[in-house]
Amino acid sequence: MTKVVKFGGSSLASAEQFRKVKEIITAEESRRFVVPSAPGKRFSADTKVTDMLYGCYDLAVKGKDFDKEFEAIKARYNEIISELGLDLSLESEFEIVKACFIGKAGRDYAASRGEYLNGIVLANYLGYSFIDSADVIFFDEKGQFDPVKTGRVLSERLAGLENAVVPGFYGSMPNDTIKTFSRGGSDITGSIVAAASNADLYENWTDVSGFLTCDPRIVDDPAPITTITYKELRELSYMGATVLHEDAIFPVRKAGIPINIKNTNKPEDPGTLIVESTSQKPAYTITGIAGKKGFTAINIEKDMMNSELGFGRKVLWEFEKNGVSFEHMPSGIDTMSIVVSQDAFADKEQEILAGIHRNCQPDSIDIETDLALIAVVGRAMKSNRGTAGRIFSALAHAHVNVKMIDQGSSELNIIIGVSESDFEAANKAIYDIFVATKL
Ligand code: ADP
Ligand code: ASP
Ligand code: MG
User: Fold this and answer.
1) Which residue minimizes the CA distance to atom 9 of ligand 1?
2) 183 lines ligand 2 (CB under 6 A)
3) Does pLDDT of 238 surpass 90?
4) Residue 194 · residue 255 · CB < 8 Å
């Protein structure tokens, strides 16, 4: 039995957290391959080492003095090393990193040192081999992850080892420079290592007891989700439930490896199991709720729109031409709305609107900004009639005006558009009606 265990930043933020991590790893022999993040926040006002590195490197690139900032980063590691009583010095590593900052080795290089150095510390503490991810995780010329080369090299490397620490978040480009995944990308490394080692399970250890039915920053102590499918999880992560990087699903899904989200601070909690499919009925009609702010709706009206062949295509073409992708497109007989990300649209607004006026001749275009989208996701919604109705009445009761509703054809999700100012109230109302009232 092989398990790959990934520990997030808060799980490795201090010597105390390192001790918990070691206890978890050594509790089961199957926990063979370990993927650490960089040290995260020790308390809510703290700064993650990754952010310290970005800040420090930006000073270096501008030719400004960065000694103080660099010393603060060194102090994070040195404190962990000394409190754990390790026979380890990172001084020569720090010197190399500093020289590369001065030599402008790149922002990705800078950020990746957070995981790299933490990996060295953790490997020393556990007595495991350290594998530099630059030697086993590869990107192609275009900066896309290269699964074929990575799979080959990494599998071979892991096959010869009983245990190893592989730092998260980065790999190397064909020209040997360092490249990172996007923020939160250590989750992806964990998934890649799980696939390459043919693991039975990918455990992702964080600071919550699994995927929760709602964002814990909006609802106090939401109920955890016991089992969730990859599809449901993808819908929720895409909409902002960022417990797990959304790209972390693909490598393990292909290999049929389940993911278990676990809490480093409460290892006895079962957490959430993420699987391809399950016969397990969810505890509630909905599996979870997630949402994001920052959307704009472009509402277009034209009499007889429905019978005008190619109207929708012409409208969408104006967005495509300008490189703006759309999130949703609810439509009526004479109306259609295109929901887009506010930031992406703002840059191209006038070009797109002029294009629609010129090429589609609508009766009117109305723009609604500051929208939030909320995804209500659940595999059980299909077999439970009246879910949309219950959402509407809960929102009406909470005095939330629903601006848009869009049900995915798979009946796995219902997307609701509300004003940003109603976002929190809407989340709470939906949570209350489906989850809290059943607790
Ligand atoms: P790590 O550093 O371990 O990778 P992250 O910060 O990336 O951890 O992810 C865990 C955080 O995700 C939690 O602390 C929580 O604040 C946030 N979060 C957002 N939505 C949810 C949700 N639905 N369930 C659980 N956690 C959530
Ligand atoms: N340390 C990186 C970040 O803060 C990657 C990760 O934690 O997954 O984004
Ligand atoms: Mg994370």
Assistant:
1) 243
2) yes
3) no
4) yes
